[in-house]
Structure prediction request, 79 residues.
Amino acid sequence: MFALQTLWIALRSFFAGAVMRRRVVDELTALSDRDLSDMGVSRSDIRRLAREAAEEAGARSARRPAGRPAPLSGSIRTA
Prediction:
């Protein structure tokens, strides 16, 4: 049973990282060179930043208990 839980956590971390990596690459490549420069990022940094974001997302996913939804972030208000 423990091995299945470990496998599940590893798979969840991998897929969370892949989604985050793709999202970061898509968003940053859509920006103009000037916008990237204003943030202090060059086009050559995009893949590194995406990898770092994916590693962070995977670490957060691994720490969250199974079956528990991710906390909401951003400006979404709840009633």
